[in-house]
Here is the input.
Amino acid sequence: MRLEDVELVQRVEVGDADALIVIDLQNDFMPSGALPVEGGDAIVPSINALAEKFHRLGNPIIATQDWHPPGHLSFASSHGRKPFERYEAEGIGPVLWPDHCVQGSPGADFHPGFDAKLAKAVIRKGFRPAVDSYSAFVENDRRTRTGLSGYLRELGVERIFLCGLALDYCVHFSALHGRELGFEVLIPIDLTKAIDSPPGNLSRALDLMVGRGVKFTRSERISARG
Ligand code: VGL
Ligand code: ZN
Here is the structure.
């Protein structure tokens, strides 16, 4: 499925059981970063605008950070290989990445234009050397939880709005796990960008998300309640 073919929800009103989750809006995923996502910087102002809406309504905003130790096994350099080479191991893959989002490095910081102070919690993921975590909920070993679902449940959240980077990796796996964990999931499609590596990955990710009941809309169709 192509991005243009995804069916969009016409009108969305932010309810009191809604949370906004901003995925990995970090320097290394910006066009000048170590693992650049095309157009990654262009979505920042519109994400701020939606976050401002949630903030005014008193709805929770949670941000995630990809947060790897040096020498992480998702890095091609840790295997003497080239970035984007295919590589599958338990908790790693399907491709290897350039070194990125190393804990405490400038590349791991939020994009300076992102209004991160509006986030009431920051979830850091991918910090175990041999296990990656694309999802904000469950690491790539498919077992280890980040704690986010419990946190959302305690806040009474039933529906999550997912935005940020990258659509076919961290947003995608967060959406699927969100569904598995019983949340409604809505992605404003203009507030996210894809890596699309290996080629065709975005199309496959869209098929999977649609099949599991993830809904899509555009940010200008989201209105405040009341
Ligand atoms: C991501 C690849 C590697 C993401 C993180 O945020 O989508 N992708 N690490
Ligand atoms: Zn990563």
